[in-house]
Amino acid sequence: MEFLLDGILNLEWQQVVMYVIGIALIWLAIKKEYEPSLLLPMGFGAILVNLPFSGVLDQVLQGGVESHGIIQWLFDVGIDASEAMPILLFIGIGAMIDFGPLLSKPSMFLFGAGAQFGIFAAILLAVVLGFDLKDAASIGIIGAADGPTSILVSQILNSKYIGAIAVAAYSYMALVPIVQPMAIKLVTTKKERRIHMDYNPQSVSKSMRIAFPIVVTVIVGFVSPQSVALVGFLMFGNLIRECGVLETMSNTAQDQLSNLVTLLLGITISFSMRADQFVTVETIMIMAIGLFAFVMDTIGGVLLAKFMNLFLKKKINPMIGGAGISAFPMSSRVIQKLAMEEDPSNIIIMHAAGANVSGQIASVVAGGLVINLVTQLL
Amino acid sequence: MNVDNIMDALQIMWKGMVGIFVALIVIMLVVMLMSKIGSKNQKDDQTEK
C-alpha cells in the first residue's frame, strides 16, 4: 500500500508554505473581497500546482509515460506562446471604460502620465537591490497598477518572477484604499486636500467618442509600437462599446468574456506559483518593491499636480494627481472619500475619474515603452 | 550593485517618462482639437437652422 503514501512522503516544506499562501489568497478574496475574481483562482491554483506529482503539470510517470497537465498547457498556450489571455482581457476592460469624464476635461490626461512614475522608480530600486534589468523592469511594471499589463510585460521579458509579480500587482490593486491615502497624506497638507474644483465639462459628441479609440490607437502605435497589442485591444473594446450598434457584443465583452478570461487567467498564472520558484527571498523583495511602486505612483501624480498649481490661477486639488493610476474606479473613489473626509461638501470625483481613466491608457503606453527600452538595452 | 544596470535604469526612467508624457500630450491636444472642431460644427448647424 506504499503507493498511497507517495504524495505525502514527497511533500516538501516549501509546498506547505504555498498551501498557506493559497489559503491566504482565498481568504483575502472571500473575507476581504480583495480582487476576488483573480485572487481566488490564483489561491486555489497555488494549492493545485504544489501538490506532489500534481496532475495539472506535465510530468513523466513511472515507466516513462508522459502526462500533460491542464494548467501547464493553459500557461503554454494562453500566456507563454501568445500572451493571449491578458490581451483578450483588455477587450473586456475597454468595453467597461467610459472615457467621457476624460474627454470632457482633457487636461486630466497629464495626471495619467505623472502617476506612472512609480514604475520607473521601482525599476531603479529593483536594480539597486540586485535584480537584472529584465527582471527589474518586469517588477517595476507592478507600478502600472494593471494586472494584465504586469503579466504581459513580465512574460515578454521572460522574467522568472511572473507569479510573484502577478500576486503583487493584484494584491496592491486591491489595497489601493489603504496605500493611496497613506501616500497622499505624506505629500499634501490638509489645506491642499480641501481645495474645491469647479466641474464645467465640455459636451462630448458621439462621433468624438467613436473617433477617440481609433485616434489613441494610432498615436500610441506611432510613439510606442510595443504597446499596440495592449492599447489596440483596450481601444477595440471601447470602440465596440461606443459605436452604438454592437450593444450585445459590448455586453458580452464586459461580462462573459471578461469573466471567462479572468477566471482562466487566475488559475493559469498559478503555474508560476510553484514552490521552487515562489518560496524565495526574491518574492518578499518583489512584494516590497511593488508596494514602493504604488506609493511612488501616487506621490508622482500628486507632485505633478502641485507643480502645475505653481502656474495655475484656479488651483487643482493635488489628490487628483494620485488618481492617475490605472486601478479604475477604485482610485477615483478613494480620492473622493479622502476629499470628503477633509470637507464633506467637496465633490471632485469626476475630475478624479478623468485622471483615473487616463491612467488606464498611460499604463499600457508605459508597458510598451518599458518593453521597447529594455529590449534595446539587453 | 551593478553600476551599468543602474545607469540603464536611469536611462529607462527618463526616456520612459518623456515617452509617456509625449504620447498623452499628443492625445490630449488631438482631443482638444476634435472637441473644438465638433463645437464649431455644432454652432454652424445651429446658425443654419
Q: How would you describe this structure to a colleague?
A:
The complex is a heterodimer of chains A (378) and B (49). With 378 residues, chain A is an all-alpha fold. Chain A is 70% helix and 1% strand. Chain A has helices spanning 6-9, 13-31, 36-49, 70-80, 84-96, 100-103, 109-114, 117-128, 133-140, 147-156, 162-174, 176-187, 190-193, 206-223, 228-242, 247-269, 275-278, 281-309, 319-322, 330-342, 349-377, and strands spanning 59-60, 66-67. In chain A, strands 1-2 form a two-stranded antiparallel ribbon. In chain A, a hairpin with a 5-residue loop joins strand 1 (59-60) and strand 2. The radius of gyration of chain A is 21 Å and the shape is globular. Chain B has 49 residues and is an all-alpha fold. In chain B, 94% of the residues lie in helices and 0% in strands. Chain B has one helix spanning 3-48. The longest helix of chain B is centred in the middle third of the chain and has 46 residues, at 3-48. Chain B is rod-shaped, with a radius of gyration of 21 Å. Chain B starts with a helix and ends with a helix. In chain B, 27% of the residues are buried.
Topology:
The complex is a heterodimer of chains A (378) and B (49).
Chain A: H1 6-9, H2 13-31, H3 36-49, E1 59-60, E2 66-67, H4 70-80, H5 84-96, H6 100-103, H7 109-114, H8 117-128, H9 133-140, H10 147-156, H11 162-174, H12 176-187, H13 190-193, H14 206-223, H15 228-242, H16 247-269, H17 275-278, H18 281-309, H19 319-322, H20 330-342, H21 349-377
Antiparallel strand pairs in A: 1-2
Helix pairs in contact in A: 2-3, 3-16, 4-16, 5-10, 5-15, 5-16, 8-9, 8-18, 9-10, 10-11, 10-21, 11-18, 12-18, 12-20, 14-15, 15-16, 20-21
Chain B: H1 3-48
Instruction: Work out the number of β strands of chain A.
Output: 2
Q: How many beta-strand elements of chain B?
A: 0
pLDDT averaged over residues of chain A: 92
How much of the sequence of chain A is in beta strands? under 5%
Oligomer: heterodimer
Helix content of chain A: over 70%
First-last Cα distance of chain B: 71 Å
Tally of individual helices of chain A = 21
Radius of gyration of chain A: 21 Å
Sheet having the most strands of chain A: 2 strands, antiparallel
Approximate strand percentage of chain B:
under 5%
Helix coverage percent of residues of chain B?
over 70%
Average pLDDT of chain B works out at: 88
Structural class of the helices, strands and pairings of chain A? mainly alpha
Order of helices and strands of chain A: HHHEEHHHHHHHHHHHHHHHHHH
Helical stretch count of chain B? 1
Largest sheet of chain B: none
